[in-house]
Amino acid sequence: MHIAFLGLGGMGQPMASNLLNAGYEVTVWNRSPEPALKLAEQGATLAASPADIASATVLITILADDVATEQVVLGQGALTALARGAIWINMATVSVAFTEEMERRAHEKGVSYIAAPVLGRVDVAAAGNLNILTAGDAALLDNVQEIFDVLGQKTWRFGDRPAQAATVKLAANFMIASAIEAMGEASALVEAYDVGKGDFLGMLTSTLFAAPAYKNYGAMIAEDRYSPAGFTMKLGLKDVRLAQQAAESKNVPMGIAGVLRDNYLDALAHGDEKLDWAALATVSARRSGQQ
Amino acid sequence: MHIAFLGLGGMGQPMASNLLNAGYEVTVWNRSPEPALKLAEQGATLAASPADIASATVLITILADDVATEQVVLGQGALTALARGAIWINMATVSVAFTEEMERRAHEKGVSYIAAPVLGRVDVAAAGNLNILTAGDAALLDNVQEIFDVLGQKTWRFGDRPAQAATVKLAANFMIASAIEAMGEASALVEAYDVGKGDFLGMLTSTLFAAPAYKNYGAMIAEDRYSPAGFTMKLGLKDVRLAQQAAESKNVPMGIAGVLRDNYLDALAHGDEKLDWAALATVSARRSGQQ
Amino acid sequence: MHIAFLGLGGMGQPMASNLLNAGYEVTVWNRSPEPALKLAEQGATLAASPADIASATVLITILADDVATEQVVLGQGALTALARGAIWINMATVSVAFTEEMERRAHEKGVSYIAAPVLGRVDVAAAGNLNILTAGDAALLDNVQEIFDVLGQKTWRFGDRPAQAATVKLAANFMIASAIEAMGEASALVEAYDVGKGDFLGMLTSTLFAAPAYKNYGAMIAEDRYSPAGFTMKLGLKDVRLAQQAAESKNVPMGIAGVLRDNYLDALAHGDEKLDWAALATVSARRSGQQ
Amino acid sequence: MHIAFLGLGGMGQPMASNLLNAGYEVTVWNRSPEPALKLAEQGATLAASPADIASATVLITILADDVATEQVVLGQGALTALARGAIWINMATVSVAFTEEMERRAHEKGVSYIAAPVLGRVDVAAAGNLNILTAGDAALLDNVQEIFDVLGQKTWRFGDRPAQAATVKLAANFMIASAIEAMGEASALVEAYDVGKGDFLGMLTSTLFAAPAYKNYGAMIAEDRYSPAGFTMKLGLKDVRLAQQAAESKNVPMGIAGVLRDNYLDALAHGDEKLDWAALATVSARRSGQQ
């Protein structure tokens, strides 16, 4: 299996590195060359452009968003370069509609498409402990399972249509944003009665809500520590919007999503777009006159 | 220490039993006599009425709500019966305003008031593993800590005003209801793309959301198992309303709380008031045309 | 017909004056004596207290809210003072639950109860041009129609249960608050594109929305003129809350009401409780970073 | 002035007819030929395709939406056919982002772009009584004012950037949808107390809300008359979404818009996409268990 890996950002770089360590032949490309050069030292082949991947049997992309993926894979010729029978695994968080379109475009070229977005941040990617949320043809998934085994601790299958994994990823991010918002609202409530939000969140995240998402973001909220951002407010809003779009095309009302959207906008209007998306909690504080 | 224990429902009965087992002298009363008779077999003294508790130095109440507490403690004379210097520990979930009023009323009688609502359901109470959320005068809390040690695995202190513990308890219930609603909305979204909500929630509650609140309610939602109710829809709505009232008196907007309120009302309008409050998730399914 | 008139605020004073001008025998009382003294010059009899109205056959009250009405009519003895067969017309905006309770309390004393809240502000009251929203026994309403004819331009009947008129009044105030909020949100939107909100609202209120509620509040929003208040933010929030309570007891979700509630709280948290309730529009501007 | 008129639907056909009646030379085209043939009898020139308009100095389009406009004007060559110096007046309701893009595309071709969406339905268009909401270069607007004078009773100018008129139109439609939703929620509230919504809305629309938008939609709601649709639920949702998108790109939270979106989705999930957008009011009734 010869893997082409496009998109060597915070997540992609360590993932490609893990594949090299596992013995795969990997051709890499990135818009800015540094991470590719670093991987070359590890044995990766440098692609001159996204189209310089003709010998790859598997294409993995993990690019910023729909637009970046479209530019690199369609605009700069990666898809066209692939041989018929190749497999494209898109591991980025992209919209459901875009997923459906890319599946179609790949199919037209005789390329199979798998959606495999991940749960986990940079350190988890580096440790090869991602949770990988996949959907696509079952036989195809079997074929590339060995890749997922290198990259993640567990691979989850959600169906044979790539759109299903894309939806699950957006739904998961919606769940995280909802948890942040709920912590923000509840913190504003208890602070209004002079209970420290750290005391409140500390109790909750040791008991009923003793889970990674709550512990991680609860600590950030308790300490008002929103920078450096692991995932920005702007990206948080983007993913809420993608969840809303996916919901809208199936007529699914999502009341909390509407609250999230408005509060992210409120935060962006106050200049907080580069903070970590946990800073959503500051909106409830500000609206209550606590800041 | 002589304890009077009023309110022997699902929670109160095992809690009183634990106190008896720990060697305390306990006088008990309940509106319906059965649980009191059972505790009498264990050595409890039966009070003929809520006012028949004159020798108690500590009064513990865990009654249904504000109204029931007021009727029993004020209306039926429990408070008046207590000697000056006694301590009233209210372990029920009641409103913040009511907490403040009861503190005042107790003070007028020379009785100290502690708020100590709990996290945990019946089985947790029986095992003496409750999390006890307290607020009140620190010296008083020290005095009764031995009681909390019998009833719970951990006692949390949130300040010297009883209203603070009442607020924390309402905020915690708000967090649970928010988690249920988020799971309901996300489940409707993934189901619209033919992903089983059980698959989705199973993944989440094994990873980012591997916490008791999510595992417990996630399983109920996955299986559409809302009966018998551990805590009813009607009580869920009541607690959301109490959180909103507490927030309103301090000018704290809570967007998710408004969503919860409307969706609980939708469920009640459809006859679901006796289901477990996790049935909130059915509203998103119904609104999406999935039921 | 001998009328006792309790509550001589901005609305009550001119209404009582109109009844005197129409030739009625009117006994008046107010917490602060000035307006009563003024009406005495016009021929009104001064009651020494709310209970000093024994000879009245009709009691009209238009007091600030539930609490003020309860204190004056029950607490200070007005209801007890009335003869059996008298009629109590409550023209204030009060809660539906309070209306039902007052109807019951009046009935126990052999007094009939009519709810007759009004639409229109002080100048409209002075001109005798109120719209009077009534509910109660039809024969009783016939009996006092002559009074309504003095006070208003039109009397509307909504049923034989006083709660029905109380509900209609709260629903009407909800409609006004919704219109203000919609104008606030839309103004924030157009201002974000450098369209003056005055130009936008001027166009709308000359065309599709050429109605008194829009013209009046639209002009205030266009000019940021929220003081002096015709009706304060605090009262606006109160009435939204009363509408929510009425809705809650019948399981009616009201999404806009939740938005209104949160935005009124936001405004109060920013110190705007004494502004006119049209200042609700400033919340959308602030949240958008326009102020 | 030689006018090319593309898009002869319910609105476009009578508008083009009015221009012919006023003596203008008009070339017409429509996807389905019937309305064009009818106008030809009135003297219009038939264009063989959207590109067959080379001699026109003014292009007016009023097509269904962004996609239809793009297909006809860009895809089928209308814009390319125009001579440099021509003016394109887009009278459809389209998105703000699309407006900005079309302005750019027109500019590249040496064509000027004016946004001029309208308020008013088919009968108003036929009577030449539209309200025309314009934005664009002031001198250009002066040049085509004579056209607007034929089509409408009044032309409103909102600035020199076409996006401004597009925004105003979306904001106006948001206002209408908000009014419908408020009537729906208030109607559910009063109906829960057995007050007929027709009585309630009849009172309101004779008093505080005596405006065309309320009278028109209030009557439809009162009579549950949602078919035939003047403007469908699906289009209502589309315009709310466009308002949200315009708001989102400027960080403007709009709480009511979120409520509208969810309730339109609820209605579509229940099969009501072809009803008049006033059927939004049925969602509140259904959620309350009244239907």
From TrEMBL, chains A, B, C, D:
**Span of the secretion signal?**
none
Q: Which Pfam family, any one, appears in the UniProt record?
A: NAD_binding_2
Q: Does the keyword Amino-acid biosynthesis apply?
A: no
The UniProt keyword set, sorted, is: NAD, Oxidoreductase
Q: Does the keyword RNA-binding apply?
A: no
Catalytic residues, per the record, are K169
GO terms classed as biological process:
organic acid catabolic process
Which top-level group of life is the source organism from? Bacteria
All copies of the 3-hydroxyisobutyrate dehydrogenase-like NAD-binding domain together span: 164-282
MF terms from GO for this chain are: NAD binding; NADP binding; oxidoreductase activity, acting on the CH-OH group of donors, NAD or NADP as acceptor
Q: Report domain 6-phosphogluconate dehydrogenase NADP-binding positions.
A: 3-155
This chain belongs to the protein called Oxidoreductase
